[in-house]
Write a structure and sequence with these properties.
The complex is a heterodimer of chains A (about 500) and B (about 325).
Chain A: E1 3-13, E2 16-27, E3 30-35, H1 42-49, E4 57-62, E5 65-66, H2 72-77, E6 80-83, H3 95-99, E7 107-108, E8 112-113, H4 115-128, H5 145-155, E9 166-170, H6 178-193, E10 197-201, H7 205-211, E11 214-219, E12 222-228, H8 234-242, E13 261-269, E14 276-281, E15 285-289, H9 296-304, E16 311-316, E17 319-320, H10 326-331, E18 334-337, H11 341-345, H12 352-357, H13 361-364, H14 373-386, H15 403-415, E19 421-425, H16 433-448, E20 452-456, H17 460-466, E21 469-474, E22 477-482, H18 489-497
Parallel strand pairs in A: 3-10, 3-11, 6-9, 9-10, 15-20, 15-21, 18-19, 19-20
Antiparallel strand pairs in A: 1-2, 1-4, 4-5, 7-8, 11-12, 13-14, 13-16, 16-17, 21-22
Helix pairs in contact in A: 4-5, 5-6, 8-18, 14-15
Chain B: H1 2-26, H2 34-58, H3 67-83, H4 88-113, H5 117-136, E1 141-142, H6 148-155, E2 157-160, E3 165-168, H7 169-187, H8 189-199, H9 201-206, H10 211-237, E4 239-240, H11 248-260, H12 270-289, H13 294-318
Antiparallel strand pairs in B: 1-4, 2-3
Helix pairs in contact in B: 1-12, 1-13, 2-7, 2-10, 2-11, 2-12, 3-4, 3-5, 3-10, 4-5, 4-10, 6-10, 7-8, 8-10, 11-12
Classes of the chains: A alpha/beta (about 500), B mainly alpha (about 325).
């Protein structure tokens, strides 16, 4: 395979166009970087190549011959390989066994597994990538994440009849250390020399500039740029990723920020994050931003008492605050909207009422132990109305509601205690546009009432549109706080990509 | 479609009435009588108590395999104390105390150490049983060692002279425990929190529920329930032997599962557990009266439990 072309690729999900008319040309011996913000359409494009999603419209040409992909098996037979962050490694099997997961085991006399041959073929495959330090008899559990990724890549070389021709890397370095990344880049170079086509998706600007030959940028499902990397600069790429000012769709901030400090986090460390320093005043919104998995989740864990404070001090409403479990946080009127609605927030088979009331039982009980049904109904009714929940009745099971309405239940439960501080971890993830706007309006309303807010979002426009100041995380450490009211989104994004020493 | 929904919701209940009709036809003079049903209520009272308190842990998606051997151990502890000449109330308190401690130990293993309930309570099942043998020296304790006031409890009841009936104390005790468990699970914030844990333990934790403490205490409740059942059994047969409770665990879990087929979202509810216990009790009573071989009886009971649960999971999946 010398050339792979995707022409006029369009894919929509109900009303939402994930990709429209995207064309891209990939050449053998070339590393092509695919960039864009979250939701720009990168993942959709990869899934189309993998045969997981069926495009609405696309012409695919391999060496100028039209080729269709109907299934993931077919994609594999074409020699397409996908390397994700999540590696599907079976950790209690050996390296060699993992490499043979997708291939028939060679056998002696057609019955007994020929282990010698397996070990030989798998270490040969690794050698072809220039990897000699991995013992193929070792259990994969003992390997570092980086080495596991190399194993996964090498396993694509096991089969000898069809040489893999396309390698798609989807944020491969997100979980790797610097040295591991360097090893990976060497391997990618080796693949390139063998004539492979490489499509490389990453958020890390520096490595894109270092290893790619061409860059394509997607924005809102549209291709906005394709050029040789040598012709591009970091600034130019970021500008085309962000596009024009995106914060137009957010409701106007009306309330005033009070001078009372709700929470003061003073140089706090936990087991997982370092040097966290911020103050939130009543009615203020603090945004948290950074590349994915830079410690966002751990900030919430710190504030909720999931991870204990190892060093530093937090004071909340002028009192020392040392939570040891989420129960302490809720008691102090700190409410939490977790990131993964279905896993971390909701009891899906239980009623709207149970879900709304769960954190507030102690406040609503009679004589400390009796459930106060009247009060429970009242609160559920009030707050469901407040968040404009669309539901039949409060005994309805949660799973019957739409994603947006489920999220509104999580919100109404967070509001039901009239919180002083509200923690929002990706509050609009998987929520439709209408519900999104409702949620933004709720946040504004809360700030009017003097509630402080911590908002983490991987959607940069949301951070820009909603926040008064922005805490930037890098490698599980606070990098800086941007307090300027007229922060420009390109500057924020540029901060993510600056290396620490600059 | 409506028909299917009806069957889905009330399938187990319809099956229960089917069983009753079947026995009424086949045992016309002896089955559907007040006396027989009072008899059944006494027969199932021990199982009922264990099943009710088992419901408490099953609400949290946990379960407790050690209840049977706990029932044996509690009975033995009381009987050994009786044989040493201690008064009845000391024996009873000691047995209940053993139930709490054993239950807390289960809870400790499951919620603090983090062992799967299956493995943890499988281990304590053997341990409790071993203790029962150890304390009793492997003997059945009976005869003069068991005070007559203790054993007469099971034989007496409230007389209803106008109907010439006697409602046994054992049945009344089971009803009392039903009320207590129902009250705890359905009327207190404690019970609501247990249901929340069963709905999603991680979400409950993040919503400020003290998951560890609650799981610990719920296991203690189940332990006490098992101990009470053990005492009831010893009182009923006026003796204690180290294997007396061994049949209870599987039947109690089966009863809760039968009950779960009747609830809205498949969650355990103690009133439905009662129905599950009744189904098992009626089956046992009727088949015994029809002189069905006890081995065949076991096969049948197992088959019916599987049938009910399979039926409900198939219809719920379709939905």
């Amino acid at each position: 395979m010398k050339k792979l072309e995707l022409l006029n690729l369009t894919k929509s999900f109900s009303n939402f166009k994930a990709l429209s008319n995207v064309s891209i040309e990939l050449l053998s011996g070339e590393t092509h970087a695919l960039m864009g913000e979250n939701g720009a359409g990168k993942t959709t494009l990869i899934k189309v190549l993998a045969g997981i999603l069926k495009p609405d419209q696309m012409t695919m040409k391999i060496d100028n011959n039209i080729q269709n992909i109907y299934s993931s098996i077919q994609s594999k037979n074409l020699g397409f390989n996908f390397i994700h962050q999540e590696l599907n490694i079976v950790s209690y099997l050996s390296v060699a066994e993992n490499m043979f997961l997708n291939h028939p085991y060679p056998k002696k006399y057609k019955t007994i597994i020929d282990w010698n041959k397996i070990y030989k073929l798998s270490s040969n495959a690794l050698k072809e990538l220039g990897v000699t330090h991995i013992n193929v008899k070792k259990k994969c559990a003992k390997l570092s994440t980086g080495d596991q990724m190399l194993v996964k890549i090498a396993s694509c070389l096991i089969k000898t009849d069809t040489t893999p021709s396309l390698y798609v890397f989807d944020e491969p370095t997100a979980a790797l250390t610097l040295q591991e990344s360097e090893k990976l880049f060497k391997v990618i170079n080796n693949l390139k020399k063998r004539g492979a086509i490489i499509l490389y998706v990453s958020h890390r600007m520096n490595e894109i500039l270092e290893i790619s030959d061409k860059v394509t940028v997607l924005r809102d499902g549209i291709k906005v740029l394709t050029d040789k990397t040598s012709e591009l600069s970091k600034e130019k790429i970021i500008r085309s990723m962000v596009g024009k000012d995106l914060s137009d769709n957010f409701p106007e901030r009306t309330g005033n920020i009070n001078e009372n400090i709700v929470i003061d986090v003073n140089n706090v460390h936990t087991k997982y994050i370092r040097n966290i320093n911020f103050k939130i005043k009543a009615g203020e919104v603090l945004g948290i931003a950074g590349l994915s998995n830079s410690g966002q989740r751990e900030i919430f864990n710190m504030l909720m008492g999931v991870d204990n404070i190892a060093k530093g001090k937090i004071s909340f409403m002028d009192q020392k605050y040392e939570p040891t479990s989420p129960s302490d946080a809720w008691k102090k009127l700190i409410s939490f909207v977790p990131r993964e609605r279905r896993k971390e927030a909701l009891m899906l088979k239980m009623s709207v009422k149970s879900n709304t009331i769960t954190p507030h039982y102690s406040k609503l009980s009679k004589f400390f132990f009796l459930a106060n049904k009247k009060q429970e109904n009242l609160i559920t009714n009030n707050f469901s109305k407040k968040v404009q929940l669309k539901y039949e009745n409060m005994d309805q099971s949660i799973y019957q509601l739409s994603g947006g309405n489920q999220q509104k239940v999580v919100f109404s439960r967070a509001l039901a205690s009239n919180p002083k501080l509200l923690l929002l971890d990706e509050p609009t993830r998987g929520v439709d546009v209408g519900a999104k706007l409702d949620i933004y309006n709720l946040i504004i309303q809360l700030t009017k009432n003097g509630c402080g807010i911590v908002l983490n979002s991987s959607d940069l426009s949301e951070i820009m549109g909603m926040c008064d100041k922005i805490l930037i995380l890098k490698d599980h450490e606070q990098y800086k706080i941007l307090e300027n009211f007229k922060i420009n989104s390109q500057d924020v994004l540029a901060n993510f990509y600056e290396s620490k020493k600059q | 479609m409506k028909m299917l929904n009806l069957i889905k919701k009330y399938g187990t209940l319809i099956g229960f009435f089917g069983i009753i009709i079947f026995f009424t036809i086949n045992l016309p003079s002896t089955f559907l009588t007040a006396k027989n049903f009072i008899n059944i209520s006494q027969q199932i009272s021990m199982l009922a108590v264990v099943a009710f308190t088992m419901t408490v842990v099953m609400v949290m998606n946990d379960f407790d395999l050690s209840v049977g051997s706990m029932a044996s151990l509690a009975g033995i502890v009381a009987a050994v104390l009786f044989s040493m000449g201690y008064p009845i109330w000391i024996g009873i308190l000691a047995a209940l105390f053993v139930g709490i401690i054993g239950g807390l130990f289960n809870g400790f293993l499951v919620s603090i150490i983090g062992i799967l309930p299956f493995v943890a309570t499988l281990g304590t099942l053997t341990m409790f049983s071993g203790f029962a043998f150890l304390i009793s020296g492997g003997r059945t304790i009976f005869g003069r060692d068991i005070p007559s006031e203790f054993s007469s409890f099971a034989r007496s009841g409230i007389e209803i002279s106008s109907l010439d009936l006697k409602i046994p104390f054992l049945s009344i005790l089971a009803l009392l425990l039903l009320f207590i468990v129902w009250f705890i699970l359905e009327q207190t914030t404690y019970g609501r929190r247990l249901y929340a844990i069963g709905g999603n333990a991680e979400a409950s934790y993040l919503a400020g529920i003290k998951v560890k403490q609650l799981r610990l205490s719920a296991f203690a409740l189940t332990g006490v329930g098992a101990a009470i059942a053990g005492l009831m059994y010893s009182s009923r047969v006026a003796s204690s032997n180290p294997t007396q409770g061994s049949g209870l665990m599987l039947e109690a879990i089966a009863a809760v599962f039968l009950g779960m087929t009747m609830s809205e979202e498949g969650e355990p509810r103690v009133l439905y557990t009662l129905l599950g216990v009744l189904i098992l009790g009626v089956l046992d009573n009727g088949l015994t009266q029809m002189n069905v071989d006890s081995y065949i009886r076991e096969v049948l009971v197992g088959f019916i439990v599987i049938l009910a649960v399979a039926f409900s999971s198939i219809t719920k999946k379709r939905n």
